[in-house]
Amino acid sequence: MNNTILSITIALIFGIGTFLILRRDIIKVIIGLSLISHAVNMLIVSTGLFDGEKAPIITNGHHDSGSGIIFTDKLPDGMLAPIVPSGMETQFVDPLVQALVLTAIVISLAITAFILILAYRIHEEYGTTDIRELRRLRG
Q: Transmembrane segments in this chain: where (predicted)?
């Protein structure tokens, strides 16, 4: 049930983003790009199968059986997992998905800031952010 609601939410955000990209105003296009970026990030995280029980932490040398179970808190070996209590075994989730999405969020923020600055300069120079009007001014 939760995956269905999440999938519908992602599809709705992606649809709104696509609708805004097809508008004539540059600011709406930028907002649409940002929404699509967030929808894709949510889709990637949802494929990581985060169920709220598995810790997204993997440290080297914790895989004893290859069954997806990690052993934590072996202080003499220098192994310490901050989420799982001492001596407790837990299954893990691959943290690569979260790392990729975090990187994508940072890159998306930088690109959005750059595009907003360009839109501001266009508005200062031509007095409009309407794409058709800008195309007409070009000649």
A: 6-22, 29-50, 96-120
